[in-house]
Hints:
By secondary structure, this protein is an alpha/beta fold.
Amino acid sequence: xxxxxxxxxxxxxxxxxxxxxxxxxxxxxxxxxxxxxxxxxxxxxxxxxxxxxxxxxxxxxxxxxxxxxxxxxxxxxxxxxxxxxxxxxxxxxxxxxxxxxxxxxxxxxxxxxxxxxxxxxxxxxxxxxxxxxxxxxxxxxxxxxxxxxxxxxxxxxxxxxxxxxxxxxxxxxxxxxxxxxxxxxxxxxxxxxxxxxxxxxxxxxxxxxxxxxxxxxxxxxxxxxxxxxxxxxxxxxxxxxxxxxxxxxxxxxxxxxxxxxxxxxxxxxxxxxxxxxxxxxxxxxxxxxxxxxxxxxxxxxxxxxxxxxxxxxxxxxxxxxxxxxxxxxxxxxxxxxxxxxxxxxxxxxxxxxxxxxxxxxxxxxxxxxxxxxxxxxxxxxxxxxxxxxxxxxxxxxxxxxxxxxxxxxxxxxxxxxxxxxxxxxxxxxxxxxxxxxxxxxxxxxxxxxxxxxxxxxxxxxxxxxxxxxxxxxxxxxxxxxxxxxxxxxxxxxxxxxxxxxxxxxxxxxxxxxxxxxxxxxxxxxxxxxxxxxxxxxxxxxxxxxxxxxxxxxxxxxxxxxxxxxxxxxxxxxxxxxxxxxxxxxxxxxxxxxxxxxxxxxxxxxxxxxxxxxxxxxxxxxxxxxxxxxxxxxxxxxxxxxxxxxxxxxxxxxxx
Length: 655
């Protein structure tokens, strides 16, 4: 009696989704649906040889999604079905209030266009939420969505490509021009979203991509708001950091950095938080400064930012956003690029800064190397104690940078990391002549750095060094100096060995060459350093004089060639990390050097981060639930540790 019953085809959702989304260049993704069991949520079957179809969650209709022979698919259909699943299971909208490919009529136009998903009001007739997934680029998707909303009169619109989403809404009777931080569930209204108490742990997400949030903020309003985008976003970040720090002390850990129904109240609350942040953490903004965005514009961008959590987040999330924000004039023209976190982790692990050792970065940028050193000391030498790390940072972490925007970033990141901003100075590391001014920041820097002048052995030499700050006594130095630019200032070149050839001043020297000399002069004898340099310094024949200088001044511990994608999208310049230990006695004539070349950058050709996946195409996660970058620098650091142990390389004074 069962002979004619059709055989149920196996569900291959996990396998086919892995194939469709394996291309890292794809504009669609699945970040929005992390944690969803694809096999339970979707049904994908092979209905014809090599051709796979998905069952529409609403209608049951089969929709083509993948051709195995051509290796082509429809990622947008997967994203649409996953949104149907999410609307039904997470937001609890019954299927009879959902529809797909519903026609939208545009005034008197004869033709119609189909919106991807419609959520109806309780009457099951009036459109309430429109969802658009077909336009994978945010700017296109938002414009398409706006046209649909204006034509159909729906209150809420959601654009998503699976990786990112923007929620728009019309605060009737005003024009459609606002955002929501989330969709209301089926049993709540838009007003309920505004009235709900929101808590730090229950509402904010430490894995939210701040870079993507900032891009959305720019797309929605900032690009045309007539303000300095970097400065205004930075003010909001400062206000949010303050709110999160205070939320831990409030009853129920309630957060106040959020969108309120009335834009005027939103502005008053957020600007108030910013003013309090300036009082608590002075030196970055003036006490008379306010947020410059209009009430309406601020209301829109706060709706995007309020769900992110900055304190306790993966610092690379915050760092990536600031790197995106730093104006091009502060990056490209000065050759200053933020160092990827996995490069920092490798360098810090190989140098192994210890409790009681002073660490400096004379081109500290966003403070990445310094934060990496703080975390390393905490985890390896302080038993994971956060308070111990903060105390260590206040005494032992030192940073210098000349770029105003970037020095602001380092202060903010130090706040996120703990409170290691006590010794961050805005100075030109290459030109100590500028350290002699009477400005407040220069006086403070000079006062504090005097304690790190190297003892030169004679009163005369010590007096000279006190005037020039030429020789310092730091234990560990980590830096990625700017490559771009040539120094032509004769007064500056006169201070350097590399500024002269055969006793005569040269006309110009590349900036990073002077940094090599300057960084070695900042170390005590026996001190060690890691510096990122263009590979040409180590390979080109015209750089032999630099290599001879290095051999005379320090032991070459290691050279690690980085992959060409490491600093993309900013530059494809091939770089190496050079590890040195300053001689404390006579140079040794012969010794082994650790050499390695990275084959996996953790980035693709476009400069986007690449993450490890399991055989099914799902992202691998670490113990903290974060996606794992696909790179090989951890293995290189581990190999160096074995090399150092074998060669009995010691990181103590004296070699």
